[in-house]
Amino acid sequence: MDANNYLIQYPIEAVHPDKFAELLGKPRSAVIEMLKANKLPVVEFRDPSKPNARAGDKLVFIPEFNRGVREAFYNRPVEQRDAWLLWMGL
Description:
Blueprint: E1 14-15, H1 17-24, H2 28-36, E2 42-44, E3 58-61, H3 62-74, H4 78-81, H5 83-87
Antiparallel strand pairs: 1-3, 2-3
Helix pairs in contact: 1-2
């Protein structure tokens, strides 16, 4: 079977920073800066035959990012959190 015939669907656990930027609607540069500042949960790939080598690719771990977003949302004052409902007249 041709590799182009495979369909990858979400949800998946982790994505490359470029895909994360696309999903988040942010520029790639913003996600790279968040990674440099350690503001995103990541999984690092390393060559197991070279345990002391620097990390290779990093994938953003989506479940932990979502947990943080939920926590931030629910820890906001009700007036701020529900402002969009009021704005929509709900």
